[in-house]
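Cross-posting from the modeling subforum.

Setting up a comparison between two proteins and wanted a second pair of eyes on the formatting. Protein 1 (sequence, then structure tokens):
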Amino acid sequence: MGRDNMPFSVRVLRRLEAAVQPMRGVVPFNRILFASVFVLGGLAFWLAYDIRFEFDVPQAMADQRLSLALLVASGKLIIFYLLKGHTISWRYVGVKDIPTFIVHAVASSLMIVVLSMLVVGWRIPRGVIVIDFFLTMLFIGGSRLLLRMAREETRRLSKVPQAAPKKRAIVIGAGEAGELMRSHNAATTPIALFDDNRGKIGVRIHGVPVVGVVADVPAFVQSTSVDVAIVAIPSATRAQFNRIYDILKTLDIQTKTLPAFSELIDGISPVQQLRDIDITDLLGRSEIKINTGQVKAFIAGKAVLITGAGGSIGAELCRQVLQRSPARLAIIDRSENGLFHIHRDLLDRAEKDAIEPVLLDVTDKERTMRFFQQFKPDIVFHAAAHKHVPIQERDPVECFRNNVGGSISVASAAHLVGTKNFIMISTDKAVNPTSVMGATKRVCEMYCQAMGATSHTNFVCVRFGNVLASEGSVVPIFMQQIAKGGPVTVTHPDMKRYFMTIPEAVTLVLQASVLGKSGQVLLLDMGSPIRIVDLVHRLIEVSGKRPEDIPIQFIGMRPGEKLFEELLCTQETCIHTAHEKVKVCRLNSNGDSDGAVHRIEACLHDIVSTGDPAFARACLKTLVPEYAYNGDKSG
């Protein structure tokens, strides 16, 4: 057959085949897919006549349909290709692809209208065009959705052992996280949802009804067989999570939760990964919102150095800084084991050449200076310090040498090599200190403030309270004592402390680093203080026991401890910044900052030279007049 004698539709198909031929191996080309579009598109046009004329098509319309069906089907296939419909994998087709199917149906209808206008004597009924629009969208889009659903159901049935029935679960939270029921690997079958938004009651999410508010859970559990309760609110505040937990702990069922919001954001845990509720859920679940663009711009492309990288705060700083794409990251610690573990952890997150582990004691001023000259950091986070109050009370000389001497060494090196930003990690124990550790950290703040008054380096201190589950903190100690059946040793029944989770604290440190101006001490909002006794009771509960099952023994306050930690020094007031959880501690009087650097350095020299604990405390009192030594006799 000659080219001129070929039917128009055949010529169109051959041109289409020639057009897509070069794309083989580049764009997926599935003959079955194109054939299905051709057949379904033609079938939609054919059935549109039957529906329009109630399956009694007049002869003239039947002749028209027969003449145009192949042409219309070919046109729909061309439109499908031009809209790249073949690049949408039917395995993953979803709601987001519906606009493409609608555009395809609209374009097909417009094509039919044009054909009706161009072919003399063939006026296609408007009803046929409208019906064809809906059938085209239904056949081409709906068929692909059905294929995906069939595939997923087949995979689910093939993977789930019939002999292992799933646990019946209720889900607290009918938001997006509540869609965890879509995980085919989950070991639970959700039977009901609960949400405090009463407007959702009666709504079904993937077939599971929202049956009430959280307060209705106990009654539902009593009347229905339930194995596990899942708290699916990753961004719940501390108060919200505690209220939910107080309701669930009275029920004789398992309780699970999703990862915290920060874990989901950082990709640490997938939304389907359930775990037991722990103390960080009850004391720290609040979502910390920061200006992520600001923080990213502060770190991205910079050479960043972190001291004390093997510690709890230092290690988390390393992880969060690495997420913001620094050009290079130097991690410094004098503990070989600590440095080894954090370096190994970071290697799973970044290129090997981007991370430089350095085994270095920052009190060695000469070695510290040489490394700074070699690395030339743009940003320094100084987290290295002794932190255990009772131990430092026994050796104030070493505490001063390490905390103050290390800070002087790192700060002076940063100043001399032209580091742009220096951020020192401080503590609320530096406020009106009663301990050697707190007093030395206050001296470090004063040194950085004095350096910030004259240096081109931007010196900022960030002050916050205790962090949950940090190395050597009370929580792991309490958990060990609870595991042994007690007693849990608490110093005083009225003792209170501020607590944050490590990720919360470090996230806010990064935000404060951006907001702080040279010489400022910034204070992180740590919420309300928590009684240590209440903390112990919560730990006992999350361990699966009752508070009355584990005895608590009060052993008396240790040297250097305070009943209540304070947030501001005697002469400080608090002013707000652009972030609601970061504040500036401002001195009410100007004070005399001249010579502060020299005085602190001279005290360091004299204390180390004499090695006398009493002299060290006397020097601390001179430098920090508000330091109130509480009469330890051990030094």
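Protein 2 (same layout):
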Amino acid sequence: MLALSCEPRFFQSYCTQAARVQRSQLRASDEFEPSFPESAVPHVLDISAPFGFALAPCAPWILSFLSLVAQPFTRRTATPNPAMQRIRSGCHASCLRTLRASLRGSLIFVSLGAKMRFRHKEHFRWKEPKAFLALNDAFERSTLSWWLQPLMALVGGALLMGSWYLARFNPQKHPPALPTAISLAILFGVFTAYIVPWMISLCPSEVRFYDTYFMRTRGNTHRQIKYRDLTTFSWRECDDFSTLILKHRRRKREILLGVPSEIPRDAISQFLLDHNVQFEPSA
């Protein structure tokens, strides 16, 4: 019996007989009247007959899906049977759970594939030496205009005073008095223009080289530069570290990176040459 049940012809005859019995019961109960020809049912069974044994485990979900598709083509003429309603609702719920799980799995697979696709490989990673950071910070402070930090303090204080002025028109707000607001604005401007850069200068700096760009992280600041925006690079030797000098294509300025002595210079130079950044001997 088990061997016969696995044959496609036996499965086709069994499905045909079951379909005839179900149609006769539905006609007797006058539950619904099909609006499509009955000759279409054997064609569907003939198509699925060669794959009967393979589709047997998926029969509940296939029947539920077919019932959902055939629902617009049927019209109801009497009160449905409660038992049939419970069976149909159970099949529908099982089908919906299966579709929801399949969709969730597809979304997880797509998200994992996107992460694996867009995650860049890290080739080099090091922390810049403290001696280089001290020299670089002093050099950057010397290139800044004298009026830049006072202007930043003034802008920060003006923004805080603007917020205080707008808060006066809100009855639910209780802003402080004018002298207190001016004092807080001055402190806020000095904090943003002078104290925040000083706190950032105390943080270590880390450099990472990826496939298409390198990133320098220090404190809460992140600077990302692509290799295609660089024209040339050169090296300058110091006592305890080396300085990598990069020239930007658009900004026409040099980018200095401190490289510890344990990081291989030849590997970094070859990596930059592979990304079309030309080597320029230092003067």
